[in-house]
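Checklist before submission:
- one chain only
- standard amino acids only
- sequence pasted in full

Submission:
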Amino acid sequence: MTKKSGKKKKPSKKSGTQKTQLKKAVSGLLFLIVLVMLAGLLAHQLLLRRSSIQSSGPSVKSLAGKKKVHKPPVYEIYPEKEIHYKKSIDRPKPTLTKKLPKVAIIIDDIGYDKKIAEKFLNLDAVLTFSLLPHSLFQDKIARKAHEKGFEIMLHLPLEPLEYPLVDPGPGTLFTSMSPDELIIQLNKNLDAVPFIKGVNNHMGSKMTTSSTQIYQIFSILKKRNLFFIDSLTTSKSLCKPSARLLQLPFAQRDVFIDHFQEPDFIRKQIKLLIRIADKHGEAIGIAHPHIITYNILRELLPELQKKVQLVPASQIVRIPS
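Returned file contents:
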């Protein structure tokens, strides 16, 4: 009998090569699948981000040529503390005559609520209406106010410190804009609202502290023969020295009338406005299109008109000395 050999057959080189190639192919396929999944996730995130930016950005025209409808922006972001500043430098000296001091009341944030705007337009009082650009009813309200002899301003949205948590709305000027972007958007805003005589800022606690960009804004306003009223949403505002440098007709807000929606508070603010006007000969109050503001203003108008002369905002602005 012959003995069987105890040696096992060695695997051929060919079969070993095939297994190696198969492993490489499987590894490559898995790597490709992972890459495709990562690319898909990245593309999804980019689309979400783009959609978010577009939804919070300024108004644009759709393919059909119609403007997108925007929700009314936040009315204002008020300073945490009342801002006090020296007014006597630019205010006229009180006279000994019985002439009533001048008061301008600006109704801000007009353009999104046609009914409340009509209520203010029907008051027997001289008011100034400041309209937000690219708002839903800006043209109708501006034309009706113009027909009734009211003065019209542009309520210019400027970047606040709270952005992007708070969006000032369509047409906002941002500190991140280049000079060309800023001027193009500003001109679009100025052209959007008809019959404007001047401008005041909507929000802007960040933009109004940027001297270079305020110079750019004011240079355009000066070319268009418009005045500027600082809503004074920050004590660090550089609007006044900028207006002085460019010799732009200018004024500052004295009183926010209705930043607390309480009847007694609004009455108190209107009385404060009268006291400031008595002391300095003139004053500027800013109110907003709230029904409670309308009701209190209508209630106090007889008393108000006995103590002050209500005038358009343009009668109080002057080039800062």
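Reviewer check: The chain has a mean pLDDT of 84.
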